[in-house]
Design goal:
Layout (H helix, E strand, L loop, with lengths): L3 H12 L3 H16 L5 H8 L4 H14 L5 H10 L3 H14 L5 H19 L7 H22 L5 H5 L7 H14 L5 H10 L3 H19 L1
Helix pairs in contact: 1-2, 3-4, 4-6, 6-8, 7-8, 8-10, 10-12, 11-12
Length: 219
């Protein structure tokens, strides 16, 4: 049950005078988590709170503590969310669960972003193309990181489109999905990335994948 010390730290997290004070409050809350000073009902109560700061904290705490009772509600929030802060925190939490409980909804949101990214951003205050790209990448990259850990061969079609993304980090993480999940790419495609991708990191990863391909063929 939430006690006065919990609420004091939560208030400091919400109303702290500066970033350092809010960081210290978060650090203290995390210490309470590992001291088992919260129970599952506490996290669920904070997750349902209308205050986005409390909700974001609860999302992170559920991932850190792998609160399985919160999975249905986390899924529901993810499906309905468009705020990049909430989505980014959810994706980080999903990774911490180290399970595939969220793979279907992560892949589905990526599909929607691919088809109608304008609909996700139409109510955003970010108008410039660079800002819009930044917002999408805050979702794309952590989504791809989660897929690297929890995905399967069924993600190929969804992820493949990002291999040609303008952002090198997105291309690298997309390529890493294929590498980590063992999803084959055509040799000529990998060769093209080695020869013509402008990013040294993407070139390097593609070269590593080519070497793995050659080694497997020789066995």
């Amino acid at each position: 049950m939430l006690q006065s010390d919990h609420y004091e730290l939560l208030d400091r997290l919400r109303f702290g005078k500066d970033n350092d004070e809010r960081k210290e409050a978060l650090k203290a809350l995390i210490n309470l988590e590992y001291e088992v000073r919260f129970d599952e009902a506490d996290f669920l109560k904070l997750l349902a709170d209308e205050d986005p700061v409390f909700q974001v904290y609860a999302i992170g705490a559920m991932g850190r503590q792998k609160i399985k009772a919160g999975i249905p509600e986390l899924r529901k929030i993810y499906l309905n969310a468009s705020d990049t802060l909430i989505l980014n925190e959810l994706l980080t939490s999903f990774q911490q669960f180290e399970s595939d409980d969220f793979i279907d909804i992560v892949v589905e949101k990526l599909r929607k972003l691919t088809k109608k990214s304008w609909s996700f951003l139409k109510n955003s205050s970010y108008d410039r193309d660079s800002d819009r790209g930044f917002i999408l990448n805050q979702i794309l990259i952590p989504s791809l990181r989660y897929i690297q850990m929890a995905g399967n061969a069924k993600v190929e079609k969804t992820v493949r489109v990002f291999l040609d993304h303008e952002d090198a980090n997105v291309r690298w993480h997309s390529l890493m999905v294929f590498d980590k999940l063992g999803i084959p790419l055509k040799q000529d495609f990998i060769s093209r990335m080695i020869e013509s991708d402008p990013s040294p990191l993407v070139k390097e990863l593609a070269a590593i994948m080519m070497e793995k391909r050659k080694s497997a063929a020789e066995q």
